[in-house]
C-alpha cells in the first residue's frame, strides 16, 4: 500500500509539472509574437489607428471599364516583365499583378500566414520592389494624369487569416483609391487567428505599406515660344482638342499678357466665379501638352479679376466679423484669408467643432468657424444649429454688411439648407447681414474610369439650382464648381480627396502656410465679394 501511495504521488507531481511547463511555453510564445508585432509598429514611419480584428472584403477582384493588361510576377523574382500595352498613351504599365506559388503553404509558419496570396494593382505597372512576403514597404510612381488606382488583395483564409486595406489614418479604402498630388499611403493589414481552442487566440498582425507617389504636371523644357491655352470648366480631360476646350487662334503667352492687362476690371455682381476660364502658358494647346500651371490665370474673356494687397485687405476687413459654416473646404478658405492678413499662421487646426480667432488685424477683425455637417454623428444636427452656435458665440453681431456669413461645402449643400439658414437669421434679427454661399467643388474622385463625366453633369445641374435659390433669398454666390472642375486633377491627398489646399509647416519659424493655387483663386474672389459695397 505504501508503494502504491508513493507511485500515485509521483504520477500526480509529474502531471502537474508537465502542465506547468506547457502553460509557460504557451505564455512565452504568445508574448514573443506580441513583442515582435509591437516592435514592427514602433519601427514603422507612421501610427496606424485601426481595429485589427475588423473583417474586410478581401479576395474580391474588381475590374475597371478600361483595357487591362495582366502582368505576372512570381514570388521568387526580383524583376517583373513589361507589358505590351499601355493605358491612353501613358508612360507606365497599367497593371501589376502578383499570385502566390502553387505549392501548399503550412499554416504554422508566421511568415507564411501573413503573406498575401494575391495582389493586383490597376494603375501601377512597376511596384518597387516586386512583392515579397519579407518586405513591408513598396513604392510606385504614377503620372499626373493617373488619379485612381484599384488595389485588391487576398490572404490565407483557410488558415484563419483576414486582411483590411486602409489609409494611414485607419480609414478603410478600396478597391478604387484616389491619389492626390504627392505621397499617398495605402496599408494592407493581415490578421491571422490560431484555430486551436484557447482562451487567448494567437494573433499575428502584419502590415504591407504601398506608397503611391503621384507626379506633378510636366512643364516645358524652355520658357520661350509658349502659347496661351484656355481651359474651360466643361473640359474633363486636359486638352481634348475640341472647340469646347481650346479657343483659337493660338496666341503667344507674352502677347496674351498684354491683352489681359488692357482688360477692364470686372464689375462684381452678386454672383462671381461663373463664366471664367483658366489661361495657362503651354508648349501647345493640343495633344500631350506641357504647361506652367503655376503661372496660370483665372479670368473672364471680357474683364479681369483684381486682387487686394495686404494693406487693402486689412482695411477692408476692419471692424468686420466673419462667420464660416461648412466643412474642411470652407475651413481652408478661412485659413487662407487669415494668412493673407497676418502674413503667416501661428496655428493650424483641423477643427471639427467651433473655432474662434479674435487676435486678427490688430484685434479689429473676428473670425469664427463652425464645422458642418457632422457626418459621423448618429443624431446629426441641423445647419440651423451650426448657425445658432456661431451667433451665440458672438453676441455683439451687427445687422448690416459688417457681419458676413460664409456657408459652403464640397457637395452636400442643398436649397433646403439655404431656406433654413434664412429663417434662422430672421429669428435672430440678422436678416440684413451679408451672406455668401460657396457652391460645390470638384471632389470625391474615387469612382471608376469614366465615371467623372457623369458626376460632373449631375453636379453642374445641382450647382445651378443652388445658385438660383441663394440669389432668390438675397444671398450672394461664389461659384467654386466652375473654378475647380477645369483643374479637377489637382486635388491634394486627404480623407475626402476634395481639398485644393494644404497646410505646410515652417519648422524654423514654427508657423504654417496655406498652399494651393486653386484655393487661393476662389479665396481671393471671396474677399472681393466681402469688400464689395
Structural class determined from secondary elements = alpha/beta
Strand order of the largest sheet: 11-19-18-17-14-16-15
- Poorly predicted parts: 27-93, 236-244, 446-451
Q: Which term fits the overall shape? A: globular
Q: Sketch the major β-sheet.
A: 7 strands, mixed
Please, how many helices? 10
Q: How many whole angstroms does the radius of gyration measure? A: 29 Å
Sheet-strand content, in percent, reads 15-25%
Please give the alpha-carbon distance between the first and last residues: 112 Å
Helix content: 25-40%
Tell me the total number of β-strands.
Answer: 21
Mean pLDDT: 75
Summarize the structure.
This protein has helices at 2-43, 110-113, 253-261, 310-316, 328-342, 383-393, 415-427, 451-472, 480-485, 517-531, and strands at residues 95-99, 118-122, 137-142, 148-154, 161-166, 176-178, 182-192, 206-214, 227-231, 251-252, 271-272, 277-282, 297-299, 321-326, 354-360, 365-371, 403-408, 434-438, 476-478, 502-506, 511-515. With 533 residues, the chain is α/β, with parallel strands linked by helices. α6 runs parallel beside α7 (415-427).
Describe this structure in words.
This protein has helices at 2-43, 110-113, 253-261, 310-316, 328-342, 383-393, 415-427, 451-472, 480-485, 517-531, and strands spanning 95-99, 118-122, 137-142, 148-154, 161-166, 176-178, 182-192, 206-214, 227-231, 251-252, 271-272, 277-282, 297-299, 321-326, 354-360, 365-371, 403-408, 434-438, 476-478, 502-506, 511-515. By secondary structure, the protein is of the alpha/beta class. The strands form 5 sheets. A 7-stranded mixed beta sheet has the order 11-19-18-17-14-16-15, with helices on both faces. The protein has a 4-stranded antiparallel beta sheet with strand order 1-2-4-6, with no helix packed on it. A 4-stranded mixed beta sheet has the order 3-8-7-5, with no helix packed on it. Helix 5 packs across helix 10 (517-531) and helix 6 packs parallel to helix 7 (415-427). The longest helix has 42 residues, at 2-43. The N and C termini lie far apart (112 Å). Mean pLDDT is 75; it is low at 27-93, 236-244 and 446-451.
Amino acid at each position: 500500500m505504501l508503494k502504491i501511495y508513493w507511485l500515485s504521488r509521483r504520477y500526480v507531481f509529474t502531471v502537474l509539472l508537465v502542465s506547468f511547463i506547457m502553460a509557460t511555453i504557451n505564455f512565452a510564445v504568445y508574448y514573443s509574437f506580441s513583442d515582435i508585432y509591437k516592435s514592427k509598429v514602433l519601427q514603422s514611419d507612421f501610427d496606424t489607428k485601426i481595429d485589427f480584428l475588423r473583417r474586410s472584403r478581401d479576395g474580391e477582384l474588381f475590374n475597371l471599364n478600361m483595357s487591362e493588361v495582366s502582368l505576372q510576377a512570381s514570388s521568387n523574382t526580383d524583376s517583373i516583365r513589361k507589358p505590351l500595352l499601355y493605358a491612353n498613351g501613358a508612360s507606365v504599365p497599367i497593371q501589376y499583378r502578383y499570385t502566390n506559388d502553387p505549392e501548399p503553404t503550412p499554416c504554422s509558419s508566421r511568415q507564411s500566414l501573413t503573406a498575401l496570396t494575391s495582389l493586383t494593382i490597376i494603375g501601377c505597372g512597376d511596384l518597387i520592389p516586386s512583392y515579397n512576403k519579407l518586405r513591408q514597404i513598396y513604392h510606385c510612381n504614377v503620372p499626373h494624369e493617373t488619379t485612381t488606382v484599384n488595389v485588391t488583395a487576398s490572404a490565407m483564409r483557410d488558415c484563419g487569416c483576414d486582411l483590411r486595406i486602409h489609409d494611414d489614418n485607419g480609414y478603410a479604402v478600396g478597391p478604387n483609391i484616389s491619389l492626390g498630388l504627392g505621397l499617398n499611403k495605402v496599408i494592407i493589414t493581415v490578421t491571422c487567428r490560431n484555430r486551436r481552442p484557447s482562451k487567448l487566440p494567437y494573433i499575428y498582425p502584419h502590415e504591407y505599406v504601398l506608397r503611391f507617389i503621384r507626379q506633378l504636371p510636366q512643364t516645358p523644357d524652355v520658357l520661350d515660344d509658349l502659347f496661351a491655352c484656355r481651359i474651360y470648366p466643361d473640359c474633363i480631360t486636359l486638352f481634348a482638342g475640341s472647340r469646347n476646350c481650346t479657343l483659337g487662334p493660338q496666341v503667344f503667352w507674352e502677347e496674351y499678357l498684354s491683352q489681359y492687362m488692357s482688360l477692364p476690371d470686372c464689375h462684381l455682381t452678386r454672383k462671381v466665379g461663373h463664366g471664367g476660364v483658366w489661361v495657362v502658358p503651354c508648349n501647345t494647346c493640343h495633344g500631350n501638352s506641357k504647361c506652367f500651371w503655376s503661372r496660370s490665370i483665372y479670368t473672364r474673356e471680357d474683364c479681369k479679376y483684381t486682387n487686394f494687397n495686404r494693406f487693402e485687405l486689412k482695411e477692408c476687413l476692419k471692424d468686420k466679423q466673419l462667420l464660416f459654416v461648412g466643412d474642411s473646404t470652407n475651413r481652408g478658405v478661412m485659413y487662407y484669408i487669415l494668412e493673407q492678413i497676418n502674413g503667416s499662421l501661428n496655428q493650424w487646426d483641423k477643427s471639427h467643432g467651433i473655432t474662434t480667432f479674435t487676435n486678427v488685424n490688430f484685434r479689429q477683425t473676428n473670425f469664427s468657424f463652425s464645422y458642418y455637417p457632422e457626418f459621423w454623428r448618429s443624431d446629426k444636427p441641423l445647419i440651423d444649429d451650426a448657425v445658432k452656435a456661431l451667433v451665440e458665440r458672438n453676441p455683439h453681431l451687427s445687422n448690416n454688411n459688417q457681419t458676413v456669413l460664409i456657408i459652403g461645402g464640397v457637395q452636400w449643400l442643398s436649397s433646403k439648407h439655404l431656406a433654413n439658414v434664412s429663417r434662422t437669421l430672421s429669428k435672430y434679427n440678422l436678416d440684413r447681414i451679408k451672406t455668401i454661399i460657396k457652391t460645390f467643388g470638384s471632389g470625391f474622385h474615387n469612382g471608376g474610369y469614366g465615371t467623372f463625366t457623369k458626376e460632373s453633369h449631375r453636379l453642374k445641374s445641382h450647382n445651378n439650382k443652388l445658385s438660383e435659390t441663394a440669389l432668390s433669398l438675397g444671398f450672394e454666390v461664389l461659384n467654386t464648381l466652375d473654378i475647380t472642375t477645369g483643374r479637377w486633377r489637382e486635388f491634394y491627398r486627404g480623407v475626402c480627396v476634395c481639398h485644393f489646399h494644404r497646410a505646410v509647416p515652417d519648422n524654423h519659424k514654427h508657423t504654417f502656410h496655406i498652399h494651393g493655387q486653386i484655393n487661393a483663386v476662389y479665396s481671393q474672389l471671396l474677399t472681393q465679394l466681402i469688400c464689395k459695397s
